[in-house]
Amino acid sequence: MLRPALAPRRCALALVLAAATLAGCGDDQPAGRSVTLGPAEPLRVSAGEYSFDPGTVTVRGSPPRLEVTLRNSGSLAHDFVVLDGEQELGGTPTIPSGDRRTASVELEPGSYQFVCTVGDHRELGMEGELTIRR
After folding, report:
1. Tell me, what's the pLDDT at 16?
2. What are the C-alpha distances in Å from 78 to residues 13, 69, 102, 129?
3. In the chain, how many domains are there?
4. What residues contact residue 60 under an 8 Å CB cut-off, 6+ apart?
5. pTM for the whole thing?
6. Residue range(s) defining the domain that contains residue 48
7. Strands, sheet with 43-48, edge to edge from the N-terminal-most edge strand
């Protein structure tokens, strides 16, 4: 049985924790940080459990070919696939935990999405935004 003085504090703590948990729900922004790359800079991406870092990438003045290196820092297998709508444009193969792979993707200026196509990883939030600007 709780002492009467502690019950309101525990209730308040429970409400604060619930609010903090819900604050991240419904956010349409990709996980991870945002980066901007120059024309010849390679994109280095880290894959963890259900997120990419960076989650938003802008490439300015890029050549038509983007070099992407995916490092799997999670415990599950992951890949990195660039999409134009639902059309796959390229990316890495599926790689195991602790591995790293590099791939090149030819992209015109525009907006793209990148995802992990392993299992239900995309549905669990493993996606990001890629913008190519000349």
Report:
1. 38
2. 37, 13, 13, 17
3. 1
4. 36, 37, 38, 39, 133
5. 0.76
6. 27-133
7. 51-53, 43-48, 65-72, 100-106
